[in-house]
Amino acid sequence: MTTMTTPSGLHAEALRSFWPGGTGPQNYVDGAWTTAAVYAETFDPSTGNTFAVVPETTKDEVDAAVRAAARAQPAWAGLTMSQRAEHLSALKAVLDAKGEELALLEAIDSGNPLPSTRRDVGLALRYLTEWPGLALSATGRFTRAHADGISLISAEPYGVVGKIIAYNHPMLFAIAGMIYPLMAGNTMVIKTSTQTPVATLALGEVIDGVLPPGVVNIVSGGADAGDALVTHPQVKRLAFTGSEATALAIQKRLSVSGMVKHFSAELGGKNPFIVFADADVSAAVDAAFAGLSFHISAGQSCQSTARILVHESIISEVEAGLATAMRRLTLGPAYEDATEMGPVVSREHARRIEEFIRGGIDEGARLVVGGGTLKSGGYFIEPTLFSDVTPSMTIAREEIFGPVATLMPFATEDEAIRLANDTRYGLSAAVWTNDLDRALRVSAQVQAGYVWVNDANRHYPGSPFGGMRASGIGREETVDELFGYTESKSVNIRVRSA
User: Fold this and answer.
1) Can you say how many angstroms the Cα of residue 299 is from the centroid of all Cα atoms in its chain?
2) Are 138 and 469 in contact (CB under 8 A)?
3) Is the pTM of this model over 0.90?
4) DSSP string, 13-68
5) In this model, does residue 1 exceed pLDDT 60?
6) Which residues belong to the active site?
7) DSSP assignment, residue 185?
C-alpha cells in the first residue's frame, strides 16, 4: 500500500473505513458509538499534521461506560468458558477481515510502519486462536482438607476490569489485554493511549455485533479519563501498560479511591543484551539489531535490547555490525512501502530523545551513528548508536524509549552480571554464549522477568511475560494472567459419617 496524492486524502480514506458517516472517531459504549462533550486533536507522526479529533472523555462519560460494563457482566459471567471462547473466535474472523484497514489506520496513528502494524494484526489473530484454548485448560480445584470435609475452590471474576494501554502497539495491546479478562468472566472498559487513540477506538467496529453490548467498552482521553477509571468504585481490577511514573501516580490514586483494588502493571525496561566472546558474533549482532525494534516501533519498546553489553575482545566487531545495519535503514512516512523505520510518536517525545542524545555526547559517550533529526514535518530521529558508554551516564541508566542504543564493554562474567543488574528495571534480558554452563549461571543471576539465551524479543506461548523491580508487577500471556483476573472462592463442605 502506498500513499495517495496527499496524506490528508489517505487520512480521510482510512477513517471512512470505520466511521463511514463522516462522524470520525467516537467512544464505543454499551454496543454503540457515543458522542462526547469535548474533543481533542490527534496527530499523524509522519507529517505532524492533524489526523483526527477524538473524544476527551469526561468523568461522567467514563462512569457511563463502567455502568454499561457492570450491567453486562452477570450475563457474560453466566456463560460457560466455551461459549466465551466462541465469541472470541467470531471476533477473530471479523478482525481478520478488517485487518488491512486496521493496519493502515494504526500506521497513520502511531508512526509504526505498515509491515509492523500488519505484524501486530497477525499477532492479535494468533492470540485470539491460542489463548482461549489455554484458558479452557484452567479448571477449579478440589482438596480433601479434613477426614470429614472437602473444599471446592473456584476462580470468580472481579466484575468490571479497567485497562489502560500504551501507545506503541495500541491495537495489539487492546486485543491481547481483553482475552484473559473476558475468558475469566469479566467485562471491561478500555482507555486508549492519549497519543494513539484512533486504531483502538476503531476496534468498536470489530466488536460490534460480535460481543454482547457492554462487554467491552472503549473510551479515549487523557489523565482525567484515566483517573476516573482508576478511582471508579465499580472497578476493582485495573491493568496498566506504560511508564513507571504513570504507574506510581495510579498507585497513589488507588490509595485515596476509598476502595481496595487489584492493580497490575507492565512497565519499562533497560534491558541488557549480553554477548560473551564465545558467541556467534554475526548472529548476536542480527538479534541485537532486531531486538532494538527500530523497524517495528522506532525503538519505542519496553523490551528493546538497547543496552548492549559486549566482551571487550569483540566489541569492535559488534559495533561495526550494528552501525552498518543502522545506516541501511530507510526512514520515511509509516504508510509508504519503502519505509523500514517510521517516526516516533509525538513532537514532545522526539524532543525528549534529542535531549538524551545531547546528554550522551556531553557526558563523553562516542557517537558512532546517527544522532540527528531528519524530516522537518514528522517526528523523525535517526537510528543512533553510542559506544564507550560507562555505567554512570544518563543514557546507560534511563529508558530512552526511542531509536538509541548503547554499547558497554566488560572483561569478566562477574562484571557482565554486575552491569546487567545495575538498573532499577528488570523486564527482559538476553544472554549470548555457546557455553551451556555459563548460560545457566548468568540467566539465574540476571534480575529480569523474561530471559532469552541465544535469542531475543520472541515470546513463547504459555511462557509468562512480565518484569521485576521497577518493570512492573504481574504476568501476562499465560494462564497466570487468567487467574490474575479472578478471585479464589472456597466452598467448604463437612461430610457427615454414615
Assistant:
1) 13
2) no
3) yes
4) HHHHTT-TTS----EEETTEEE--S-EEEEE-TTT-SEEEEEE---HHHHHHHHHH
5) no
6) 266, 302
7) T
